[in-house]
Amino acid sequence: MNSPRIWLVTYPKSGTTWVRSMWSALEQDGKIDINELNSINSSDRYWVEYTMGISTTFLDNAEIRLYQSEACRYFFEAEHNQTLIKSHDALIGEDEIEKPILNQSNCDRIIHVIRDPRDIAVSCQYYFQISLDRAIDMICDSKCWLNTSRVYSTLPIFLSDWSAHTKSIFDSNLPSLLVRYEDLKQSSVKELGRIVEFCQLPYSNDAVRAAANSCNFQNLALQERLVGYKNNPSQDTSRFFRRGESGNWRKVMSIAQVKRIIDKHGLVMESLGYLSD
What percent of the chain has pLDDT over 70? Predict the structure, then answer.
């Protein structure tokens, strides 16, 4: 019997690469190379085209998402060892024609990592090299897409806004484990242990501890400084592993900017404990 088909689904800048690193460290006896992580990106254009034997250049977004979904299903059918697919796509489409990439035909469990959207906005500002106001626009845009150009190596990603993205996973009929970025910061060993238990992975407590410790933020940031990180689009101007702090928004956001985010996302934020202070 094949291992469970596990997805890591996150809004961007929520700790995706951190969890992928810990997953890889588990599979490699605590060793980690940030440029060789053991997971598949569901939006990797070249991987989808190779797997499906097609060109996506002239396909519309709805057609692309169908091929992505099938490519992921084929991948899990071919793989017999535990592995992971990561996705930033919301589990909804922009309209009724566009179906979610992830569904019961290609997924058994979802690791759902969330983060305070105020910190996400600050992180997006640096990652995408945009203003903070533009980053707030992005996380509040219910029709937000990434990578819409056909020349990108990454396929279009439908994010929607942060609340809709988050609720789309809550509202799915797929088993999911909610992991807060802030709790990972507080106790990465404990949270990685929850992930291992949820995914029914065959790793001991010692292996979990070794993987979590090898992937602490300082170690990942040091590795990036020494050898670079190939998935950082702003290598010349900004580090991918920049700060990794929780609550950094307090230092940089105006009252008006904070209000914009809470006005849009307050209900979901409150349900997740982000307005308790």
Answer: 89
User: What CATH number matches the domain at 6-116+142-232, 3.40.1160.10, 3.40.50.300, 1.10.10.10, 3.30.590.10?
Assistant: 3.40.50.300
Per-residue pLDDT band at 1 (split at 50, 70, 90): very low
Compute CA distances 3 → 68, 77, 84, 186, whole Å: 20, 10, 10, 30
Query: What pLDDT score was predicted for residue 2?
Result: 63
Report d(CA 59, CA 65) in Å as an integer. Answer: 10
Q: Compute the average pLDDT of residues 37-41.
A: 82
Nearest to 87 by CA among 95, 103, 221: 103
Task: Return mean pLDDT, the chain.
Answer: 87
CB-based contact 252:127 (threshold 8 Å): no
How crowded is residue 267: how many other Cβ atoms within 10 Å of its Cβ? 12
- Where do the domains of the chain lie? 6-116+142-232
